# Entry
Amino acid sequence: MSSLDIWMRENPLAYVWLGSYAVAFLVFAIEIAMVRHKRKITLQQVRLIREAEGEEE
Amino acid sequence: MGDGTGVAYFDGVKKLAINWFKYSAPTTFYGLAGKMIPWFAVSAAILLAIGLYIGFAVAPADYQQGEFYRIIFIHVPASILSMFLYLILAGYAALGLIFNTRLSAMMASAIAPTGALFAFISLWTGALWGKPMWGAWWVWDARLTSELILLFLYLGFIALHASIDDPRRADRASALLAIVGSVNVPIIYFSVQWWNTLHQGSTIKFSGTSMHVAMQQAMFITLAACWLYAIAVVLARVRSIILERERNTTWIAELPEVKG
# Structure
């Protein structure tokens, strides 16, 4: 039996929290950060296009 | 139905139909989505906190699995979401393909990353549960393998869409993949019945369940939280896609956030 097996059986709640919930929350946090970043970048691009069009006119 | 009521009924139906069409246009949907996101996001956070409190503080330990069963409060919602989101994605993709509606294809593109992440969480948490219960992180079981194929289908959809420069062509090509791939969802669901799998069958059935009531409550509340989270994130993502695709239109130029 490996040391991880022994640890998980001695600390089942820590195993469940760190292994499953912490990873799931990290995934959610990364997704939220990516969505916010995408919005910020897209808005910047759209504003730049608008400004460039305004200067041409 | 008399003449008057018949006309009123059809007028009502017509108004409803017009409203649906109105919100299927990116112009109106963009604003509506922006208003809805905070409601879905806050509700998701509250429900997740309540669900996890019930799941960890109220629900008792399982008589066979001990504390390890508590993984189901994220594993089951993530698995259900990964399957339903794929069906919704395929539905939007089909709508976009048949009616050539812009928003449908944008919605399909917005759903894919969230669906892929839920499929990943489902597989990851399943592996975490499998190690103490089965003695293995992974087995080539029908349920696990078909869920892995679902993750690959999501990744394939995202990759195919990204590999084609013209967005409308990318929409059509990836829509075909999404529609064909949707055959995998019933395979995932029925795999535990069709084949002799290591993965357990459904615990909750229409005929009833042997689960403790607190376990059921926690699972359904976290499922609702995951649904609300997915809706909030997909709406936020589709707003960026709308901005990107419609950037040359006048209505985008007139948005307060674009004017700065």
